[in-house]
Design goal:
416 residues; alpha/beta; Rossmann fold; 2 domains; 8-stranded mixed beta sheet; 42% helix
């Protein structure tokens, strides 16, 4: 087995919870298990609270070892209140601190892989690849500029122009591009980068996400209830106000309870709406650790996967959908396009038009009254992700892409 020396740059990484963190950890862990020398460059854990986690405060640079990975953590500017200034400083501070840490981390690498968003990690990756004589691979997890534009989070024409130029620069200078959904892959092809784009879909780890039984129900006070669980970021794209409206619509259903696991920019908004509308059927669980989330999913009866009704999201596939399916829980998916096609092909849940509150409520009522249908959807859902969306299989595809990039200096993988 020819080994590679890989630098993997991701601003987000465990112990933070989230889809980005899980993908980064499992991809790099697998590469290390395959005999590659993998260094992960990330910031001090702080997501989503904006507060540096205990044990990491007061440090500008830390090194750790975990699952065969060398993990380098660097200082980042962060605050609980996410103003435009704080977000800009958060991304720029990591770009600078990670570049400094990358310079001193090793004399050379074979491949530098930067995952985005934020796109500034791509600039760090490109600069370090030039200085280290390495190939540069750029992973595109979101079309961040289009998303910010459609959600109204980015309107300034100067920033939009700069974002477009930055995207073009990174796409042009990358030796390979990685896209995580068919929609992103198709967009890269449309922009003229199809010759270097490789589709490596998101997925799940069924060894971690499996039916853990109903033991958490008593702990969470869910006995006798039909639990609908949302797990993920509480952000603009996910439509948290719609979720509160859904809870209000379901208030007459005494046995149906909505539970929300996660945190994000709209946490305080949800707390305020819960109090104002007296949503006694909405439980805010806060952030759940990676070690416990499978047990919480297993304690629920079905999963809810919503996104706002925006054209860009037709190419989105929320990773949590696969986690629900792996835990043998049916999903109510309110995401059109690729996610809708997966639900139809797997028969693992019910599709509802995005932002259709009445449709979501009706789908939940149907599942609550049909436990046999829930069990069947859960059974076929797990089988479907095992056949099509294994994260280990995705990591094997990534390994082949990285091996195919070669080296700027044309070194053999083992001739160092």
């Amino acid at each position: 087995m020819n080994d590679m020396k890989i630098l993997y740059i991701s601003q987000y990484f465990p112990p933070e919870a989230g889809a980005t963190q899980a993908r980064a950890f499992e991809m790099t862990r697998f590469l290390a298990e395959r005999g590659h020398d993998v260094t992960v460059l990330c910031n001090m854990p702080n997501h989503p609270s904006g507060i540096i986690a205990a044990g990491y405060q007061g440090h500008c640079y830390l090194q750790e070892r975990d699952h065969g990975l060398r993990i380098i953590r660097t200082w980042v500017f962060t605050r609980p209140r996410k103003s435009i200034f704080v977000r800009a400083a958060f991304y720029l501070s990591f770009m600078i601190s990670s570049f400094w840490a990358g310079l001193k981390s090793a004399s050379h690498y074979d491949v530098v892989l930067a995952t985005s968003p934020p796109p500034m990690t791509g600039l760090t990756g490109w600069l370090l690849s030039k200085l280290k004589g390495a190939s540069f691979v750029y992973e595109v997890r979101d079309l961040w500029r289009e998303m910010a534009l459609q959600l109204g989070a980015l309107r300034n024409p100067v920033w939009l122009w700069l974002g477009r130029r930055l995207d073009h620069f990174l796409y042009h200078h990358a030796d390979r591009l990685i896209s995580v959904t068919q929609g992103i892959h198709d967009e890269l092809i449309r922009l003229g980068w199809g010759h270097k784009s490789h589709l490596i879909r998101n997925g799940t780890n069924p060894d971690l996400f499996m039916d853990r039984g109903r033991g958490f129900r008593e702990k969470l006070g869910w006995d006798g209830k039909f639990i609908v669980l949302y797990a993920g970021v509480l952000g603009l794209a996910q439509g948290m106000e719609d979720l509160c409206a859904l809870a209000e619509r379901l208030k007459p259903e005494a046995t149906i309870q909505l539970a929300v696991a996660g945190a994000g920019p709209l946490t305080s908004t949800m707390q305020q709406l819960k109090e104002e509308k007296q949503l006694h059927n909405l439980m805010l669980l806060g952030e759940i650790s990676r070690e416990e989330i499978a047990a919480v999913i297993s304690a629920a009866d079905c999963g809810l996967v919503p996104l706002k009704n925006k054209p860009l999201f037709r190419g989105a596939v929320p990773t949590k959908m696969f986690d629900f399916m792996a835990c043998e829980r049916p999903v109510v998916v309110s995401v059109d396009g690729e996610a809708r096609e997966i639900v139809a092909a797997s028969q693992a849940g019910v599709y509802v038009e995005p932002e259709d509150i009445d449709g979501m409520a009706e789908a939940i009522r149907f599942l609550s009254r049909n436990p046999a249908a829930c069990r069947e959807m859960g059974r076929v859902g797990r089988r479907y992700v095992q056949d099509h969306f294994l994260r280990r299989r995705a990591a094997m595809l990534l390994e082949e892409v990285l091996k195919g990039t070669g080296s700027k200096k044309q070194r053999s993988w083992t001739g160092r």
